[in-house]
Design a protein that fits this description.
Elements: E1 4-5, E2 19-22, E3 28-30, H1 31-34, E4 39-44, H2 50-67, E5 71-77, H3 89-98, E6 105-107, H4 112-116, E7 121-122, E8 124-128, E9 134-138, H5 154-164, E10 177-180
Parallel strand pairs: 4-5, 5-6
Antiparallel strand pairs: 1-10, 2-3, 2-6, 4-8, 7-10, 8-9
Length: 187
């Protein structure tokens, strides 16, 4: 299991726009359509990564709890589906339904969006404010597969609560650790 850290995009970066296929609704959705009233969480994930599987239920719980607070969640998979067919759009649809994702699960076929966000691993989590300026990036919490720590989502929840309370997030932002994004090999 590769342990790749986040690249930690600079705070204040404006969220790169996108128009991507939502594998749940089969519609093309844009950041402008999906952004939240109070904040927007963008997560680069995939179906098969043990690090994502480890946190899936907590991510769903947080997304459900914060949706009513005007925070929108968006999941994106950018993996190469030729070499990793388990991450195909068809399997993304099944996975989103099985995991009860309350958010769109978008397919970044060209990998241009992952590159625009400087995403490196799954899960890679970004929190943008109402103006789509990056306010937090990094880990969900300190739990990893096999380290024995409970999955609490404390880092992400602290970042979201700080934004909602209009307080500066003074907590150290730690990189996420996960499987590397499966980049396509140049042809």
């Amino acid at each position: 299991m590769a342990r790749t850290p986040s690249n930690m995009l600079p705070l204040g970066t404006i969220a790169p726009d996108f128009n991507l296929l939502d594998t749940v609704s089969n519609n093309i959705l844009s950041l402008q359509n999906l952004k939240g009233k109070n904040a927007t969480v963008i997560m680069f994930i995939c179906n098969h990564c043990p690090f994502v599987i480890h946190v899936n239920s907590e991510v769903v719980s947080i997304a459900n709890a914060y949706a009513e607070k005007g925070i929108s969640f968006i999941a994106i998979s950018s993996n190469d589906v030729v070499n990793y067919p388990q991450d195909s759009p068809e399997n993304m649809t099944i996975h989103a339904k099985t995991e009860n994702y309350p958010f769109p699960y978008l397919y970044d076929e060209t990998q241009e969006i992952a590159k625009a966000y400087d995403a490196a691993c799954t899960p890679d989590i970004y929190v943008f404010d109402t103006h789509l300026k990056l306010n937090y990036r990094g880990q969900l919490d300190d739990s990893r597969p096999g380290n024995g720590l409970p999955v609490t989502g404390k880092d992400l929840k602290h970042a979201l609560d700080s934004l909602l309370e209009n307080k500066k997030n003074t907590q150290t932002q730690k990189p996420s650790i996960g499987c590397n994004i499966k980049w396509k090999t140049p042809s």
